[in-house]
Amino acid sequence: MDSDLMAYLKNICVKNGIRVIFENRLSAFTPSSASLKARCIVLNMNFHNRKELPLQFAHEIAHVLNGSSYDLAFYHASFSSHSKIEKVANVGAVKLLLDYANSNDIPVTNMVNFMASFGIPTALIETVNETLGLYLSAKHG
């Protein structure tokens, strides 16, 4: 796990008044989560795939920054509305990682390398492809 990236994400939280609890006592398969109402993230530092932790952290930050009605998503949302909330957070997470890469001169033009560098699972390939395309268009447009 990249400590500079984690520090970058922590700094985003500090600047935006988001409290972060780095939890080490959860199951390796318990997902991290965010509460918009409490402006708080619980990041499972014991997660079984540690390479994904920066992505998870960025994802939870995006929930809070986007104002996702995430607190109620598990209890009241349909699958499709919950899926939309997650998609928006995934896009936000990818944007945060792209901003980090850009500010640290990390090349992002190769999607496969970008995903591997940031522990992004292949399940998010479409989201990364769309977000990266828009990012590169805006940067070079």
UniProtKB/TrEMBL annotation:
Q: Which residues form the IrrE N-terminal-like domain?
A: 29-105
Q: Which InterPro entries does the entry link to?
A: IrrE_HExxH (IPR010359)
Q: What name does UniProt use for this protein? A: IrrE N-terminal-like domain-containing protein
